[in-house]
Amino acid sequence: MKTETARDLVPECATLLSALRAKSPLVHCLTNSVVENFTANVLLAIGASPAMIPDPEESGMFAGVADALLVNVGTVTKPQTEAMRRAVASARAAGRPWVLDPVAVGALPLRTSFAREVLAHGPAVVRGNASEIIALAGEKATGKGVDSTASTDQAEGAAGAIAAATGGTALVTGAVDLVLSAAGERATISNGTPLMTRVTGVGCAQGAVVAAFCAVSGGDFFAAAAAAALATAIAGDMAAEKAKFPGSFQIAFLDALAEIDGEVLRERARLAR
Amino acid sequence: MKTETARDLVPECATLLSALRAKSPLVHCLTNSVVENFTANVLLAIGASPAMIPDPEESGMFAGVADALLVNVGTVTKPQTEAMRRAVASARAAGRPWVLDPVAVGALPLRTSFAREVLAHGPAVVRGNASEIIALAGEKATGKGVDSTASTDQAEGAAGAIAAATGGTALVTGAVDLVLSAAGERATISNGTPLMTRVTGVGCAQGAVVAAFCAVSGGDFFAAAAAAALATAIAGDMAAEKAKFPGSFQIAFLDALAEIDGEVLRERARLAR
Amino acid sequence: MKTETARDLVPECATLLSALRAKSPLVHCLTNSVVENFTANVLLAIGASPAMIPDPEESGMFAGVADALLVNVGTVTKPQTEAMRRAVASARAAGRPWVLDPVAVGALPLRTSFAREVLAHGPAVVRGNASEIIALAGEKATGKGVDSTASTDQAEGAAGAIAAATGGTALVTGAVDLVLSAAGERATISNGTPLMTRVTGVGCAQGAVVAAFCAVSGGDFFAAAAAAALATAIAGDMAAEKAKFPGSFQIAFLDALAEIDGEVLRERARLAR
Question: What domains are defined for chain C?
Answer without folding.
Answer: 9-272 (3.40.1190.20)
